[in-house]
Design brief:
elongated; 14 helices; 4-stranded antiparallel β-sheet; 51% helix
């Protein structure tokens, strides 16, 4: 074996070892994240069955002014709660959604349960700090109310991102995503075709070899989807998300800054909800809008998109509370490249682009489950009785990676702090295993 061939063999043994550790660390969390993610993907279908009576009404001749629906919602909301925002109907069968926040932002265990409106059933998860009151836009009849986190989509999102726990538990999913990224990178390196190899599964492959070929092929075939899912997931994580946002800001890719200190000129009567809705519709793209009323007499109205499935129609609008004059507007063209990428990537991660997006994510989830299962099947087929089953490291393996490989590893650790911390702990474990192995070897020689 020449020096180059031996170098390649040493690198491969190291990548196998790292791939194994990545799978060992990430597998339990990845299994939970995949199963809960698949559940979340079907949110539109599930919510269509659960909340048809809240989200939609039979169209009639004409709608009442928006103020009538907001007033009805205020009468049905818990006493002392204030309107946070309003989503007027976009389609003829849509309802008016009025969000209320509790006084002082304190949690109310019975939020949405005690007002005049009957709560929607079934409920999911923990009470939220806000409730949504649903109103028929044609007769201002309150259809029901629901606490924010009790809606299935929000419950499923919390289950997927932090296992229904508080933010302190988000580190588990972030740790899994970090090591899944390592597993993906090392998997691609190990699969990469060399010489006459094609990288495609061969017909008739059986046993551990067949498992290995399909394990590698499916993992790489959906590699682009994996990168999008993992990257977008890390953008809203606690530790890695902060690093990514800092890098975004340093590179000049921060979102367009909203001007501070915008004020309305108190001239004439203030706009009501119906007037504000008409102003927003005259300037916004053809998409459902979310309206936020001024917090004081000289504050401004704010409008933004309420539908994330059409990111290219994203907008932010602020206008005078009396004249309706636009004071600030930022549409899709004003977004940076990073902003556009996340505006597309995050809804894709959530399966919000329709059936094809859901089908692709379902296929992705099934391939992740297969990769996890097949990886452990191969491990137990390879592991000798009485051994740990760790992939064997060739001498000098830890010094064999190229400068590019070390640079990529350093970049990943810099962006993913939990990867750095757990990686250091893993290195200590490797040193301990190496010392134990050397001691056992000396004892055998004696």
């Amino acid at each position: 074996m020449d020096d180059h061939t031996f170098l390649i063999a040493r690198r491969k043994s190291l990548y196998w070892r790292i791939h194994f550790w990545a799978a060992l660390i990430a597998s339990p969390f990845a299994l939970v994240a995949t199963l809960t993610g698949i559940l979340y993907v079907f949110t539109p279908q599930i919510e269509a069955r659960l909340y048809q009576h809240l989200d939609h009404v039979a169209p009639q001749a004409s709608m009442l002014p928006l103020d009538a629906a907001v007033a009805a919602a205020e009468r049905a909301a818990p006493r002392g709660w204030t309107v946070q925002h309003v989503v007027p109907p976009f389609q003829q069968d849509d309802v008016v959604q009025v969000a209320f926040a509790p006084p002082g932002g304190a949690q109310d265990e019975h939020a949405g349960h005690g007002g005049h409106a009957a709560p929607a059933k079934p409920k999911f998860g923990l009470p939220a700090q806000a409730i949504i009151v649903y109103v028929n836009p044609y007769d201002a009849r309150v259809l029901g109310s629901l606490a924010g986190s009790e809606r299935f989509g929000n419950w499923a999102k919390k289950l997927h991102s932090r296992l229904l726990q508080n933010d302190g538990w988000r580190w588990m999913i972030e740790l899994a995503a970090s090591w899944l990224m390592v597993m993906l990178v090392t998997g691609v390196v190990l699969w990469w075709p060399r010489g006459a190899q094609s990288g495609l599964p061969k017909r008739g492959a059986r046993g551990r070899n067949g498992w290995r070929q399909w394990h590698a092929f499916l993992g790489v075939a959906l590699g682009i989807v994996s990168v999008v899912i993992l990257t977008t997931g890390l953008t809203w994580s606690q530790q890695a998300g902060g690093r990514i946002r800092a890098l975004r800001d340093v590179s000049g890719q921060a979102p367009p800054p909203v001007p501070r200190g915008l004020h309305s000129r108190e001239e004439g009567a203030p706009l009501d909800w119906q007037d504000a809705w008409q102003v927003a519709r005259s300037h916004a793209p053809a998409i459902a809008v979310q309206l936020t009323a001024p917090a004081s007499q000289d504050d401004v109205w704010r409008a933004t998109m309420a539908d994330r499935s059409q990111p290219t129609l994203r907008f932010d609008l602020q206008f005078d509370a009396y004249s309706g004059k636009p004071l600030y507007y930022a549409g899709w063209q004003a977004q940076t490249a990073f902003g556009k990428a996340t505006a597309i990537g995050i809804p894709f991660h959530r399966g919000e682009f329709g059936w094809w997006n859901q089908a692709l994510l379902l296929l992705f989830g099934a391939s992740v489950l297969f990769s996890l299962v097949s990886g452990w099947v191969m491990f137990f087929k390879r592991r000798l009785p009485g051994s740990l089953g760790l992939p064997r490291l060739l001498p000098g393996a830890w010094t064999s990676p190229s400068a590019l490989a070390w640079l990529v590893a350093a970049g990943m650790c810099a962006l993913m702090p939990l990867l750095l911390i757990s990686g250091c702990m893993l290195m200590l474990l490797e040193l301990l295993l190496a010392k134990c192995g050397a001691r056992i070897g000396r004892m055998r020689l004696r």
